[in-house]
Amino acid sequence: MKHPVDVHVGKRIRHRRWMVGMTQQQLAEKVGIKFQQIQKYETGMNRVSASRLWDIAEALSVPVAFFFEGMDVPAADMPQATSAERAVPSDILADKEALELVRSYYAIPENQRRRLFELARVLSDVA
C-alpha cells in the first residue's frame, strides 16, 4: 500500500525532473541507480531514503524541502490563505500547461523575465 507522503514526494521528483527537461534515465545515471528505481520512486511504489532523496535533490538542483512542499498540514497549523492563493490549485505542478509555462518562463533572459513578471503581477492585481 502506497503511503501518501511517498506518493507526494514521487510526484515532486517527477515534476522537477520534467521541469528541468531530464529523463528518468538521466536522473538515474546522476544518482547512480537504475531508471526503473526512479519510476518506482515517482509512482510512490518505493520509499525514497533520506540519503537518496539528498542525491536526487542535488541532481535536480533543489533543496530537499522542495519535495515536501504542498504536503497537507493540519488546518490548525496552516496560515490562512489569501484570496489570490485560494485561486491557485493546491497541486499546480500536476497541470502540464502550468509546467510548460514555468519552463518557458525560465528560458526567457533574466531582464525580460523580470519585466514579464511585473506585467503579470499588474494584470492579476496581486500585490
UniProtKB/TrEMBL annotation:
InterPro entries: Cro/C1-type_HTH, Lambda_DNA-bd_dom_sf, TransReg_Diox_bact_type
SUPFAM superfamilies: lambda repressor-like DNA-binding domains
Protein name, per record: XRE family transcriptional regulator
Organism field: Celeribacter indicus
Keywords: DNA-binding
GO cellular component: a single term: cytosol
Taxonomy, superkingdom: Bacteria
Record carries keyword Cytoplasm: no
Annotated GO MF terms: DNA binding; DNA-binding transcription factor activity
Pfam family, one: HTH_3
Coiled coil stretches, renumbered: none
Domain HTH cro/C1-type residues, every copy: 13-67
